[in-house]
Amino acid sequence: MMKTACLATLGALSLSACAATGAATPLADGSDVALGQRAMVDGPIVQPVEILEDSRCPMNARCVWAGRVRVKMVWWRGNGEKQPFEVTLGESTPLADGAIRLESVRPEKRTDVTLKPEDYRFSFRFDGGI
Fold it and tell me: Is pLDDT at 45 greater than 70 in this prediction?
């Protein structure tokens, strides 16, 4: 009888733990972010939503200009509002009380492969705060 009561209590506790932990999914950090994915980048919550430009020189080609990547973003403010902005690879963009920087874009561009939007991954860094 005691064994059955202990098992029943243990089972109920395990189910309640599952229900409590499944409610909130943690946000990704800013090191490997896909299009459409929200990430917390050292404070601000941001989301890349569209590739505006990817004119990088393919890794298996020779180019006169290295090219650039521009990405349309959304900043999810603390009050729930969404604020659109744009980032360019290697440049700082003012945001909140600091600046966000698009550090890297993967995969590298190639002449023999056409990248689809879902292939892209981004790394961001935020400098600022009090």
Answer: yes
Whether the predicted pLDDT of 43 surpasses 80: yes
Residue 29 host element (H or E) = none
Q: How many CB atoms lie within 10 A of CB 25?
A: 7
Give residue-wise pLDDT tens across range 111-122: 999 999 999 999
Nearest Cα to Cα of residue 105 among 91, 125, 118, 124? 124
Cα–Cα distance, 13 to 37 (Å, whole number) = 33
Q: Are 38 and 25 in contact (CB under 8 A)?
A: no
- Mean pLDDT for 37-49 is 95
E strand intervals along 1-130: 39-40, 45-54, 69-76, 82-88, 92-95, 98-106, 121-128
DSSP type of residue 57: P
Between CA 52 and CA 72 the distance in angstroms is 6
pTM of the model: 0.78
Residue of 69, 82, 65 lying closest to 109 (CA atoms)? 69
Residue 67: which region, alpha, beta or left (left: phi > 0; alpha: psi -120 to 50)? left
